[in-house]
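To: structure subgroup
Subject: Chain for Friday's discussion

All,

I'm putting the inputs and outputs inline so they're searchable in the archive.
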Amino acid sequence: MAFIKNFARFNTRVELDEDDIIEYFDIVQSVVSSKIVKGVTDDARKVAIDVVIYTDEDEHGPIYIHEIVLDEEIDEEEGNAISDELALTFPELENFTFEASIEM
């Protein structure tokens, strides 16, 4: 059986500070809280999985990728709500993208 990863990614051209990363997580959680993955420790305690941050680069420079792994796929309405809230919360980020998808 193939591993399937649902995710939400907030891609920016500038590195976000810790407060902005927390704000991103809070926005996603406010729209799809039941879909955010929970991890389980070795002693069976549930813990939240927060935001994984990594970088990429294209012809326009660095891309800072802020990824939240989800239990379920985000539908179009939920994705639009998150994207709209990100635009309101981060008006100074002119070239951000938000994507929700799956990887196999």
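Points worth raising on Friday:
The CA atoms of residues 36 and 70 lie 4 Å apart.
The beta strands are 5-12, 38-40, 46-48, 52-58, 61-70, 97-103.

D.
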